Amino acid sequence: MPAVLQDVEELQPSEPCSTRPERTSRRYFYYSLTLAIVPLVAVLASFLIARSSWYLRHQRNSYLAISDYPFTLKNAGCEVIIYGDSSALTGVSPPVIEATTHLRTCNIAQPNTALAIVGTFALDSYLQNNAPPKFLIFQFTAPDFAPRDAKGRLYEEGALQLTRHKLDLDTFILFARHPVQTLEFSEFILRTALVDRYWSTFGYDLAWAQVRTSHGLFTAPGGPLKSCAGDLEVRPPETGYIAALRSKYSRPGTRVLIYSAPFPECDPSYDYYSEKLASLADNRLRRFPIHMFNEQNHFTLEGAALNSSSIGADIAKILSQ
Q1: Which domain holds residue 112?
Q2: What is the Cβ-side half-sphere exposure of residue 83, based on CA atoms within 13 angstroms?
């Protein structure tokens, strides 16, 4: 064979050229599929992790650790129920109210970031599993006398509560409407479960010991404030929101009382809120020294005891009538 023809034959491909584009297209397909599947698997895994008791025991946020407390109460026989924002969670002490009224009291309040997403879901779940209380006490810090709009943000506290206790069609629709925030929530769960977490359950056990002993009161760690942590947000109260709470939950045998949380004495918006809340709340807006707070809207044990003694006295007065 001539050398020129032999060289031409050696240069010819052993397989048809048409198969190369097919292989390349297949590789791109599998590569793209992998890119799509990995985030999907991560999101699904984060929701499974969030629903596990292991997650609550090892993540670092004490408020998340005790978030299941209202859902553990079945046939609890609580005659006084406390609900509201974190000013109630940290500022209304069931033992103090029980000592004054001799009525079993339970605190199932939630942080306002949970209320912005789930509203009264924890309260409604409690009422489905327990006999109606004699007294239902709502306490809000002054800015929360109007419902908070999450503005498209899935706060961790609210999103976790839905994931753990209301994983239904409505919740899936909510997450689907906020895909970016859903991915951020998924990232938060994975990070706090796998990286930024406690190796032991000491923090969880400590928080739950406090909640069980106090029937729901939770005191945030940290010493008393020495100065204002910042001015409270000025948000006009909504009369309709408060009226709707009274109307929805008042029933024969259940008295609804709505309280404004004590005000830091150094906050400049006291006069504004004192006037606006006078016709909405069942108490007079009071000022507390700053050392009775350990965070902006959160109370020390001393502050909670003083606030609760006033609420207990009001209940005792009603009982004596």
Answers
A1: 57-320
A2: 22
Nearest CA among 258, 223, 117, 240 for reference residue 177: 117
| Residues 82 and 137 sit within 8 Å (Cβ to Cβ) | yes
Residue 13 lies inside a defined structural domain of this protein:
no
**CA–CA dist 86, 141 (Å, integer):** 8
C-alpha closest to that of 171 among 108, 121, 241: 121
CATH code for the domain in which residue 292 is found: 3.40.50
d(C-alpha 41, C-alpha 227), whole Å: 47
Domain membership of residue 160 (yes or no) is yes
- Domain annotation covers residue 41: no
Structure tokens at 263: 């005000």
CA nearest to 139, candidates 259, 238, 36 = 259
Name residues whose C-beta falls within 8 Å of residue 200's C-beta, 6 or more positions apart in sequence.
none
Q: Name the one residue in this structure whose structure tokens are 């945030």.
A: 220
- Report the phi/psi class of residue 138: left, alpha or beta, with left for phi > 0 and alpha for psi in -120 to 50: beta
> Would you say residue 109 lies in a domain?
yes
Question: How many domains would you assign to the chain?
Answer: 1
H runs (alpha helix) in the chain: 3-11, 19-50, 53-58, 62-65, 69-72, 86-91, 94-101, 112-118, 121-129, 156-165, 169-177, 179-194, 202-214, 239-249, 270-276, 301-320
Residue 141: per-residue pLDDT: 95
Average pLDDT of the chain to the nearest whole number: 89
Cβ neighbours of 97 (radius 10 Å): 29
Backbone angles phi, psi at 138, to 5 degrees: -100, 130
264 SS3 class: strand
pLDDT by residue (tens digit) across 230-281?
888 889 999 999 999 999 999 999 999 999 999 999 899 999 999 999 999 9
